[in-house]
Amino acid sequence: AQTVTQSQPEMSVQEAETVTLSCTYDTSESDYYLFWYKQPPSRQMILVIRQEAYKQQNATENRFSVNFQKAAKSFSLKISDSQLGDAAMYFCAYRIKTSGSRLTFGEGTQLTVNP
Amino acid sequence: EPEVTQTPSHQVTQMGQEVILRCVPISNHLYFYWYRQILGQKVEFLVSFYNNEISEKSEIFDDQFSVERPDGSNFTLKIRSTKLEDSAMYFCASSYSGTGLAYEQYFGPGTRLTVT
Q: Which of the residues in chain B have pLDDT under 50?
């Protein structure tokens, strides 16, 4: 069974600084998708960034980028120039490349941004 | 931008009662999902639905749960006899296709279910 692990329950960062959230996963699949979702206090799930496992290039979306290490099964999220609005719970998620397959989520990392 | 909607936003029910949570997926999407999140815990998959039938379900999705697409737009989750431990946020999601470019699952805002 696939598992996703986020070992940092809480992280904090100063506004305008950079922070990295860690995620590891376990799978026997060779091709799959990885995601980072943001959950603000409203509890809405918002997709931040996605990575396809067969792509070696790390995904980037504005201030958000990932460090995807396939061999190590590691998928970290880097947030640059942190803003107060980035404060939220961040979930790492995994999905196999089959139609309609489930997302498997990690436990989440609560990010605090200090002014 | 199209979005997934869910009603109600908050439902309070007594233990043993039946509840129906409603979702309107994005109109051209083909795959529908329910997830739940107990307060302070991670999001857990319940069930996926495609072509008017369940395509996958988790061990959480026991006989107390059922899903239905009663018409061309709604997707519902029914809990027949609620338990205290069913208290959670329930998220509906939809995707156009599970593979290819349109693999992204779009989440609704959630329904907070409180069982007393």
A: none
